[in-house]
Amino acid sequence: MSGSIVGPARGRPYASPYVAGVGIGLVLLASYVVVGRGIGAIGAFSSAVAAAVGLVAPAHAAASPVHAEYLARGGILRDWLFIEIVGVTVGGFVSAKLAGRFATTIERGPRITDRTRLYAALGGGLLMGLGAKLARGCTSGQALTGGALLSVGSWLFIATAFAAAFATTPALRRLWR
């Protein structure tokens, strides 16, 4: 991944955040109407791990209640959250291509190396994944689905996530300038 850039890839302007927000709300509403549940991501990864364990260690998987739940849903290709994540991934690629923003770059500030940026992204992703498992729901599931259902725990999560972002921004901002 060479050819790092500073700033966003060139292409058409980004969509209006208001239009995108309404679109996300309509997708959330449609998910309730069509499949009877909200959107999220972490469950897809749990299903993928259950499928992998079932292939590598079937005896261990058979003893797991998580694997039994996974099998009861009909496998990974019948798991709503897995199909959702595949759709989000494909949709992201298609959207980037149509907007002229598809590029292999590492977006970073001028005071950070490509390697440091990749390690920071990996570390942040691992922390978010761990937090999602501890919170029993990912950011999208907690904020969008739980928030829409007026779940007190989800609203506390949203407030905590924003507070943590505001607290860490000054320390990280210097790397992007």
Give an overview in words.
With 177 residues, the protein is mostly helical. It has one domain (17-176). 68% of the residues lie in helices and 0% in strands. It contains eight helices and no strands. The protein has helices at 17-35, 42-56, 58-62, 65-72, 80-98, 114-135, 139-148, 152-173. Helix 2 (42-56) crosses helix 5 and helix 7 crosses helix 8 (152-173).
What is the secondary structure topology, with strand pairs?
Blueprint (H helix, E strand, L loop, with lengths): L16 H19 L6 H15 L1 H5 L2 H8 L7 H19 L15 H22 L3 H10 L3 H22 L4
Helix pairs in contact: 2-5, 7-8
Descriptive tags:
single chain, disordered N terminus, 68% helix, mainly alpha
Summarize the structure.
By secondary structure, the protein is mainly alpha-helical. The chain has eight helices and no strands. The chain has one domain.
Mean pLDDT: 81
Structural class: mainly alpha
Number of domains: 1
Proportion of beta-strand residues: under 5%
What is the overall number of helices?
8
Helix content: 55-70%
Give the radius of gyration: 19 Å
Q: Largest beta sheet, briefly? A: none
Q: What is the H/E order? A: HHHHHHHH
> What's the assembly state of these chains?
single chain
Between the first and last Cα atoms, what is the distance in angstroms?
22 Å
* Unreliable sequence segments: 1-7
Total number of beta strands: 0
Shape: globular
